[in-house]
Amino acid sequence: MYIIFIICVVAWLIFCAGCMRFRLSDQKAYSLFKSKNVPLKIYDTIIDNRHLHFAISGNSGLPTLVFIHGSPGSWSNYTTYMLDADLQKKFRVMSIDRPGFGYSDFGNPMHLHEQSELLIRAIAAHQNDKPVYLAGHSIGGPVVAQMAAMSPGSFKKIVIMSGSISPYLEKKERWRYIMDNTVLRKFLPGAFAPSNTEITWFKKDLYELEKDFPLVNAEVIFIHGDKDNWVPIGNVQYGMEKMTHAASIQTDTLKGEGHLVPWKRFEDIKVILLNLY
């Protein structure tokens, strides 16, 4: 029985190391976009010794819509949006593997402030003198808020979808710290290991973000499901109270919806994005 147990443990560790990374290979991505006749460029760049992997689709002369995924996730979470014919008419669409996920130094996440600076620089390197719009889901929400605070005037509007921006509404989840600081971390499959690390960091990083909210001067749109059991809808009210210098704040409550609004309510989100300008 002991030998069987050891074999099972080893097999699980091998599975954890190689599976559930939630990412799409460049080859498959190019094949998918080619089949839909949508132009795609994938970049793998280095900024301050960190690899950053991202994809851009559409007309290079249009305003840019940037998607920032949650945790775990990757740029490919937003292929449906990048392939959409209506969005293609209005935007050049960019989606990024955040540090620690996808092909951006997988397994090695970064704190909120540091990764936001990295993403700002990556976007700036592809600036086309047209407005830039940010859309972040879940943990991607505080990331786009931090980016807007760090670089006022760089982003026309930010869209926060089911965003976990309030440190006071975060669940304690003490088990995450145990998982992250013991051998148990090795038993978390694929992207769940860096995700768990990142979430433990963000619970503290959000207190620092709170100090920066008054620096946000972009137009802000909150989208949240009123049945979100992962990230309470109270985050919207918190954001409205803290972003005192936002050019404007719009809220869209999706009745009966949970946390996964970008995929469960694609058509509703699409309409909001099409009306960004």
Could you describe the 3D structure shown?
- By secondary structure, this protein is an alpha/beta fold.
- It has a single domain, classed as Rossmann fold (3-Layer(aba) Sandwich).
- The protein contains 11 helices and 8 strands.
- An 8-stranded mixed sheet has the order 1-2-4-3-5-6-7-8, with helices on both faces.
- The chain is globular, with a radius of gyration of 19 Å.
CATH fold-type name: Rossmann fold
- Mean pLDDT figure: 93
Rg (C-alpha, Å): 19 Å
Spatial order of the strands in the main sheet? 1-2-4-3-5-6-7-8
The number of distinct structural domains comes to: 1
| Total count of helical runs of at least 4 residues | 11
CATH architecture: 3-Layer(aba) Sandwich
- Structural class by SSE content: alpha/beta
Helix content: 40-55%
CATH superfamily: Alpha/Beta hydrolase fold, catalytic domain
Which regions have little confidence, pLDDT < 50, spanning 5+ residues?
A: 2-18
Strand content: 15-25%
Per DSSP E runs of 2 or more residues, the count of β-strands stands at: 8
Distance between termini? 65 Å
